[in-house]
Design brief:
36% helix; 609 residues; alpha/beta; cytoplasm; Glutamine Phosphoribosylpyrophosphate, subunit 1, domain 1; 23% strand; binds fructose -6-phosphate; Rossmann fold; eight-stranded antiparallel beta sheet
């Protein structure tokens, strides 16, 4: 989703801006642009192609300057055409980039048109640029900060912006409300970005702006004011060394790299769990856990499926009633509040607009206890919740979530054990056994990754199909859902997942000898039931692709292809079974030649509703 970079320095900042955009590419975008103040006037270059192409155009245009803003745009208001690409100018005085959606842009647009402003784009962003321009014109001091403060008061919606004015050539202003923005401080300049990763190598220290903050950046320093206009002192954080490189290395795609990183990230995630204790979730966890009687998990997409998987663990291991809800549904429905339910938000980015809004909604209607399980430590969700657990998967660049999912599952499993122990349902022996299983997971994941050549063969067949069904039962049903989501989002093969027992209630009607049916077959208590469901598929000619645990006695035969996994891994089995499904989606997409890391129409961090 949209990405922002801003810079003010004692040197030419064009390279910082384009490199920052390159690092934000993973968020997904359909146009991009850079504007700098050059020879006393704002100049910009915009492109509806990739950032690499923009960088070439920038070079051809000999763009240079010491202050500037840049943007990758994921279209919401207005098609992805050059005129709608940011930076947006107002009367060649103001240059602005924006992430988010302005809900009241229509009345503001009418008002500004009546004041004589000509609109050159279909974007909601142009309203902000003109509003700042107009507010500044009206003010005798013509101070950009005052104009930004006043203009922002009139906006409804979510935004992060970066802006500069022709007549104030020494500063760039950033502001956030609902969309992330970080200030980076370096030796020779100060910077803004949607994500600290965009500034890695450029800035050494970071300030993660709070809701309503406005930051004024000059070469000499950073001044922050809060939503009431008072000077704010925010914590300055050193750049976190991250040993998961953001470079591709020997891999063809980030998704492939991130799938293969899973043994390492899971090793890191389990290594820090030496014993099961509430302290893993923060200082206030002990008390909070003693005050709750149920869980309400809120999430979107892949994170929703990890939450759905964990529901089985919470109820079976901890005996705690658990509800899981899609954040975009929960936030708009009238729900019955149980103040003793802990709200758990699960998110890779910690910035997903729907999950964030669902969390705020839950807090407003009376949920006191909240926990965020996130991969980005300083994200909005981590800062808004009482308790936090950082999944520690490192940067996830591929739009399709993989290692973030498996590490979320580890975190949720640890939460289930913790709540089970607190509620007297997990004995010391159970704890020791579960910890052994957790610590052995990386080795088990490696043995599943070794199945890749067999999965490539399946992918060749699947790539020729238009549809696929995924089946699972029990705790593996959400894994089937995740497998179907992975396949459709990156290979564009239409896929649906069902609990295997549900097949005969409708979907069996679409099973023919053209239909691949990918079946998750763990060696658990539901195995015999699942085998019956597989018979139902075969009887209609359906082509079974079975991921079977050792010991299930499911053999390859006519219309039945089997890949054998290691022996059943108990409650953690979903973490192993999802990996072949990730690889299957990945290789199917490769055979079909899609843009694996940047699938069409999708964005990494969905910061708009
Ligand atoms: C799918 C995928 C998305 C995200 C969803 C939520 O592969 O990545 O479905 O899971 O957009 O994002 P986060 O986890 O950042 O809240």
């Amino acid at each position: 989703m949209c990405g922002i970079v801003g810079a003010v320095a004692q040197r030419d900042i064009v390279g910082v801006l384009t490199e920052g955009l390159r690092r934000l590419e993973y968020r997904g975008y359909d146009s991009c642009g850079v504007a700098v103040l050059q020879h006393g006037a704002p100049r910009r270059v915009r492109s509806i192609e990739r950032v690499a192409n923009l960088a070439e155009q920038v070079e051809d245009a000999r763009l240079s300057g010491t202050i500037g803003v840049a943007h990758t745009r994921w279209a919401t208001h207005g098609a992805p055409i050059t005129d709608n690409a940011h930076p947006i100018f107002s009367r060649d005085e103001i240059a602005l980039v924006h992430n988010g959606i302005i809900e009241n842009h229509e009345p503001l647009r009418d008002e500004l048109k009546a004041l004589g402003y000509a609109f050159e784009s279909d974007t909601d962003t142009e309203v902000i640029a003109h509003l700042i321009h107009h507010t500044r014109e009206e003010d005798a001091s013509r101070d950009l900060l005052t104009a930004v403060q006043r203009a922002l008061q009139r906006l409804r919606g979510a935004y992060a912006i970066a802006v500069f004015a022709k007549s104030e050539p020494d500063r760039v202003i950033g502001a956030r409300a609902g969309s992330p923005l970080v200030v980076g401080m370096g030796e020779r300049g100060n910077y803004l970005a949607s994500d600290a990763m965009a500034l890695s190598g450029t800035a050494e220290h970071f300030i993660f702006l709070e809701e309503g903050d406005i930051a004024v950046l000059s070469c000499n320093g950073v001044h922050i004011v809060d939503r009431d206009g008072a000077t704010a002192h925010r914590e300055v954080q050193a750049q976190h060394a991250n040993h998961y490189a953001t470079e591709l290395g020997p891999y063809r795609h980030y998704m492939q790299k991130e799938i293969f990183e899973q043994p390492d990230v899971v090793a890191d995630a389990t290594e820090r769990v030496r014993s099961i204790t509430p302290a893993l979730f923060g200082a206030k966890a002990q008390r909070a856990f003693s005050e709750i009687d149920s869980l309400l998990l809120l999430a979107c997409g892949t994170s929703y499926y990890s939450a759905l998987t964990a529901k089985y663990w919470f109820e079976s291991i901890a005996g705690i009633p658990t509800q899981v809800e899609i954040a975009s549904e929960y936030r708009y429905r009238e729900s019955v509040v149980n103040p003793c339910a802990m709200v758990v938000v699960v998110s890779q980015s910690g910035e997903t607009a729907d999950t964030l809004a669902a969390l705020k909604h839950a807090q407003e209607i009376g949920h006191h206890h909240t926990l965020a399980i996130c991969n980005v430590p300083h994200s909005s969700m981590m800062r808004l919740t009482e308790l936090h657990y950082s999944t520690g998967a490192g940067p996830e660049i591929g739009v399709a979530s993989t290692k973030a999912f498996t590490t979320q599952l580890v975190a949720l499993f640890v939460l289930a054990l913790t709540l089970g122990k607190e509620r007297g349902r997990v004995s010391t022996d159970d704890e020791a056994h579960a910890l052994r299983q957790l610590h052995h997971l990386p080795a088990a994941l490696n043995s599943v990754l070794a199945l890749e050549p067999q999965i490539v063969a399946w992918a060749q067949a699947l790539a020729r199909k238009d549809h696929a069904l995924f089946l699972g039962r029990g705790v593996h049903y959400p894994i089937a859902l995740e497998g179907a989501l992975k396949l459709k989002e990156i290979s564009y093969v239409h896929a649906e997942a069902y609990p295997a027992g549900e097949l005969k209630h409708g979907p069996l009607a679409i099973v023919t000898n053209e239909m691949p049916v990918i079946t998750i077959a763990p060696n658990d208590t539901l195995l015999e039931k699942l085998k019956s469901n597989m018979q139902e598929v075969r009887a209609r000619g359906g082509q079974l692709y079975v991921l079977a645990d050792a010991g299930t006695k499911i053999e390859s035969s006519d219309g039945v292809r089997v890949i054998q996994l290691p022996g059943h891994y108990g409650p953690l089995s979903p973490i192993l079974h999802v990996v072949p499904l990730q690889l299957l989606a990945y290789h199917t997409a490769c055979v079909r030649g899609t843009d694996v890391d940047k699938p069409r129409n999708l964005a990494k961090s969905v910061t708009v509703e």
